[in-house]
């Protein structure tokens, strides 16, 4: 079963996790059943408005403070974020006890429990950055630096700069961009990527092909106008 684009709902779970996979399969089944039974009615889901990328201020590696739940007022480090649902996950905070073998209890498999971090939503004020100047929670914003050539993250209250952690720049290929090593014969060199190979001209596609192949069209064309 595959999710239809009309039925896609942002989730805090990762697609390869068993619970998320089962929910996606169930949602896909319900979607197709609904289509068969109610031909002229669309499924409606609660719309989640994601925070724009340029306004996102919390990244992996940031020190934050939990504002709700059993770990309220405790600080922790962000492990990963989900920008589709405005959620962040704090390492070792706001956890829930989960039985990994709950679905196999009837088979006699012993239960294995572990603490799993639950999402904390930024737009609901459930988590906030820690201001380095006084170690208190704060709201952050992006402003231009004194030179006017780069945006920096500062605390709205103290105007103190909060540097973006290096972990926020890590990808599956490198920890930091300057430590990336190109693989010869596999990676496309930067100079090849930046090379301009297309020269725009005021000709139709057919005229460009004719010129490239040396075909001379002696027909008299009707005048065309460019707006």
TrEMBL record:
Listed SMART domains: KOW
A GO molecular function held by the record: RNA binding
UniProt keyword terms in alphabetical order: Ribonucleoprotein, Ribosomal protein
One term under GO cellular component: ribonucleoprotein complex
SUPFAM superfamilies: Translation proteins SH3-like domain (SSF50104)
InterPro entries: KOW (IPR005824), Rib_uL2_dom2 (IPR014722), Ribosomal_uL24 (IPR003256), Ribosomal_uL24_C (IPR057264), Ribosomal_uL24_KOW (IPR041988), Translation_prot_SH3-like_sf (IPR008991)
BP GO terms, sorted: translation
The keyword Ribosomal protein appears for this protein: yes
Keyword match Ribonucleoprotein: yes
Pfam family, one: KOW
Occurrences of domain KOW (ranges): 57-84
PANTHER family assigned: MITOCHONDRIAL RIBOSOMAL PROTEIN L24
Protein family (similarity comment): Belongs to the universal ribosomal protein uL24 family.
Name of this protein: Large ribosomal subunit protein uL24m
Species of provenance: Onchocerca flexuosa
């Amino acid at each position: 079963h595959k999710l239809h684009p009309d039925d896609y709902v942002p989730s805090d779970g990762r697609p390869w996790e068993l619970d998320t996979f089962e929910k996606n399969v169930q949602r896909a089944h319900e979607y197709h059943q609904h289509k068969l039974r109610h031909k002229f009615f669309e499924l409606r889901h609660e719309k989640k408005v994601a925070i724009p990328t340029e306004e996102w201020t919390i990244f992996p590696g940031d020190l934050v403070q939990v504002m709700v739940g059993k770990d309220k007022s405790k600080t922790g480090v962000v492990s990963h974020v989900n920008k589709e649902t405005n959620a962040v996950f704090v390492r070792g905070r706001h956890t829930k006890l989960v039985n990994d073998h709950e679905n196999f209890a009837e088979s006699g498999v012993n239960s294995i429990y572990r603490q799993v971090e639950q999402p904390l939503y930024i737009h609901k004020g459930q988590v906030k950055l820690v201001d380095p100047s006084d170690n208190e929670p704060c709201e952050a914003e992006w402003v231009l630096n004194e030179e006017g050539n780069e945006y920096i993250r500062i605390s709205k209250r103290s105007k103190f700069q909060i540097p973006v952690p290096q972990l926020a720049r890590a990808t599956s290929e490198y920890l930091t961009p300057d430590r990336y090593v190109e693989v010869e014969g596999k990676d496309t060199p930067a100079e090849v990527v930046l090379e301009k190979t297309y020269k725009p001209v005021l000709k139709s596609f057919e005229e460009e092909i004719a010129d490239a192949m040396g075909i001379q069209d002696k027909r008299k064309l009707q005048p065309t106008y460019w707006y």
